């Protein structure tokens, strides 16, 4: 039952208007849907009308143009409504379905979260509400009437603008909403419940007044203030950066606690996982505030990139997601520090997308086939998709990029578009031929760019031989060379960029563009061999392979004019050391230290003009995932952990005075603000503490204990607890118990507590996790709890998930099988932990395979889980 891009066909019918009448009444909830349909001139004539359904129950007799249909003229099953001989001209069809929202544990369609009714329709949830042409290229104008008990659901919201509301008999009331913008059904939303609200307003550049509201659980109003602030900043930024204004009279956001993903951009009515709305200094970390800012922006930006212009089909998902991630990343970079945000985005890309692209789940940014679309809301579609847009901007330049965006908005507003149509706008606006660039959308795998240098002192010629290689991925063996823009510079011994003059081979100052498998770039008239700085600011999402000496790397780490590459040089130096160290540990050796790495960190910590946020990033070692990828095959997670831990200990021991001085210079200043500068300060404080504690002395543990107890904000409290979590010490357990008591009534805070314990790199952790599944705050019904505890263990604890006895894999298989019948989407997500199982050493690999086979043998499995297990084992 695979769906293929090549099989796309225009719909045979169009739905111009939709009138929904939703009567919220517990298990007797009724949805009356009145559709104005007509044959699509671009579709096939004379075919039956087949509407999608999923677990639907038809109630009463359907009406065709107001008259009851006779039983022989239609068929209704849970998965389809068929009208055998539809009229040849426009007609009206009225269908009623009966729903039980409280029984909907998949959290797709209409369901209950807490006491509220809410919906999630992307990708294919609308068909769980009513029969419909559930595909993104069917755009309709919606009018929605909601009726509910006044006490149970005083708040009634849907897309668009409010039209009418009033009281009804029997303590009931209603509200009517109208959305003038044609939209696909995946953007439909309604909410009914007893919610508190904070309100604000916004005046758009052209003077439209917009009422803003964020709905939350009663008592949580104050915690929505930062989200509101982020929303207003997002609205202004989109006007300034992209010339995009908001287009309705109201913009509503609702925070719910049971949500499969982060948030959803329904037109005029965004529904959010409350984790991305609620924050206070006592309950949220700086990272939580940053997450709220970027998700609020992301969903808001979808109003243009996603809603006004949507996707023709789900293969084009990156058309809205990659582009919108790009936009939210640019927003965050403008709000905070450009280089630091770039570093953290690239860290994210490397830790999830690179492994995905190198393993059994690899797929192109625009996949060409799927069995379950929910499994394609991936780091590749989102984050690599954003990198592709960034490369496009680098290639054609800022001005042409903006002209291309303007053309895209002008030409495709109100349409369901494709990647080809999107790229054509940039080709036209820039005069570039972007045919080869489109390969970024169709070829999976992270390109490797292999560089060798040649220095000829006698002629002063420096040459770079650059080769590209795109690894084979499932279903794709022969790859074509891609367009790879490499921002670069050559560092002279004074630390400045060498002046390159104009060499015909260099495309633009500071930019090399690869287009074929091999290139040679020559730079003449140099006085000395420069140190190359390639792929500055991570201009392309590639693996750069160049064998620079430690001296070169440590020189670049200190002097590169591109801050991203300073960080990158340091990461490269540490990565090389750690890979060697892991190898020696497996052969019975000891972890390696490297005095110059510790010195480099100390010099950044001690610098007078220190940028705290950057210094923190600079001092964090490559992750275990980074090292796993670098090693590539026959991976032993215990050796990687030991190498990393050993280097941290060595650094800690060598530069303890600098760490202590840095730490005490960053003492808590009392009042909390979530701005980037203060957050940077706290993050560096956390990094220093973490290194001190790993050094193991009682003094350091006492420092962490004090920071934990005295903390006046969650960032400092969490960083102390996180530092303590890596030492097997009674102080750690005391802090964990204290935390549980303090925040017993704060589920989002306890998620941090679950995740931190799940990540403890000790043999006892699996039992601890099993125990925590019985904790009163844990629930298999809540996606956030599952992701924190089970996801925290499977994806955040490489040594214990990959226990050599396979118990970690068996545990995950048990949870996946238990969850699958209730919430297949969340069950399938957990399987992401197996994305690199084939790179493991033989023993673990066999055990991982055994767990995957055990899942695969169960019947029935959801399409979500069976699709992933099949691909994992292929
Ligand atoms: N469009 C949403 C976003 O990017 C994600 C919704 C995905 N939902 C799903 N059930 N697959 O913000
Ligand atoms: Zn999105």
TrEMBL record:
Residues 226-438 form the Peptidase M1 membrane alanine aminopeptidase domain. One of its GO terms (molecular function) is alanyl aminopeptidase activity. Residues 83-187 form the Aminopeptidase N-like N-terminal domain. It holds the Pfam family DUF3458. Its cofactor is Zn(2+). It is an enzyme of class 3 (hydrolase). It comes from the Bacteria. CDD domains: M1_APN. It catalyses: Release of an N-terminal amino acid, Xaa-|-Yaa- from a peptide, amide or arylamide. Xaa is preferably Ala, but may be most amino acids including Pro (slow action). When a terminal hydrophobic residue is followed by a prolyl residue, the two may be released as an intact Xaa-Pro dipeptide. SUPFAM superfamilies: Leukotriene A4 hydrolase N-terminal domain (SSF63737), Metalloproteases ('zincins'), catalytic domain (SSF55486). Residues 550-874 form the Peptidase M1 alanyl aminopeptidase C-terminal domain. Keywords: Aminopeptidase, Hydrolase, Metal-binding, Metalloprotease, Protease, Zinc. Residues 445-546 form the Peptidase M1 alanyl aminopeptidase Ig-like fold domain. The keyword Metal-binding applies. NCBIfam families: pepN_proteo. This is Aminopeptidase N. It comes from Flaviflagellibacter deserti.
